[in-house]
Write a structure and sequence with these properties.
Blueprint (H helix, E strand, L loop, with lengths): L1 E2 L3 H13 L7 H12 L4 H17 L12 H14 L9 E2 L6 H14 L6 H19 L5 H21 L3 H14 L9 H19 L7 H6 L2
Parallel strand pairs: 1-2
Helix pairs in contact: 1-3, 2-9, 3-4, 5-6, 6-7, 7-9
Length: 227
């Protein structure tokens, strides 16, 4: 049983071991990992695909992959083989509850996010604060919270906040931000479907907008990695 909140760190550490140096994945690769997770690709299948990328590079005399982007074709191929092999097998790739942080730390993150948005009066910000308050109330009432559900809710709220921040910018600024994101992600278009590329684009855009505003991360993954 793989830990939902180890998905990112396991991939990062595995990639670093194969590269034989400690590397922090880029924000773009972070978005790619999120895309794999949201697509339901199990952790062991991702690691298998990464292994195959390095093996393929070594056998052909090429340099090892420098970013996770170069591993994406092998990961998607490995996932397809995994799905074919397990059709009807009833295999579950469910994730377990995290143990790397406490309920109090999650409550503190929700409070920090609410405080950071306190001065914003636009309707979308008010909706975000209301949803954060609902998450906090639900968390207090549960002895064993569903942290995966909390994390997904936070991601949705983060998208709402990022959209509101973009709306507050003038048209030229919004166009420039999107142009910069497209430039950063241009290499990903080759191996991603239009739908997957758009999902990666929006995820990376939201993260960049929130980081540029110096808001706390709308993610328990970031809380976990900060411990």
């Amino acid at each position: 049983m793989k830990n939902y909140f180890n998905y990112f760190t396991e991939i990062e550490e595995h990639f670093s071991r194969l590269r034989q140096r400690h590397l922090f994945v880029s924000p773009m690769d972070w978005g790619l990992i999120e895309l794999w997770k949201n697509s339901g690709i199990p952790l062991h299948v991702v690691l298998w695909g990464i292994d195959r990328s390095f093996e393929g590079a070594a056998s052909s005399g090429k340099r090892p992959p420098r970013t996770l982007y170069y591993c994406h074709p092998a990961v998607t191929e490995a996932f397809e083989q995994h799905r074919v092999a397990h059709v009807g097998a009833g295999e579950e790739d469910r994730q377990t509850e995290p143990s790397a942080f406490t309920k109090e730390q999650v409550e503190r993150l929700l409070q920090d996010l609410s405080t950071a948005l306190a001065g914003e009066e636009a309707e979308d910000f008010q909706r975000a604060r209301s949803r954060l308050a609902g998450l906090a109330e639900g968390l207090r009432e549960q002895s064993r919270p569903d942290y995966e559900k909390v994390d997904r809710s936070l991601s949705h709220i983060g998208g709402l906040v990022a959209g509101a921040l973009l709306k507050a910018q003038d048209r030229d600024s919004r166009r420039e931000v999107r142009k910069r994101i497209r430039k950063d992600l241009h290499v990903y278009r080759k191996h991603l479907s239009a739908e997957s590329y758009q999902e990666l684009f929006e995820s990376y855009l939201n993260r960049q907008v929130i980081e540029n505003r110096r808001l706390p991360p709308f993610s328990l993954f970031d809380l976990d990695s900060s411990l």
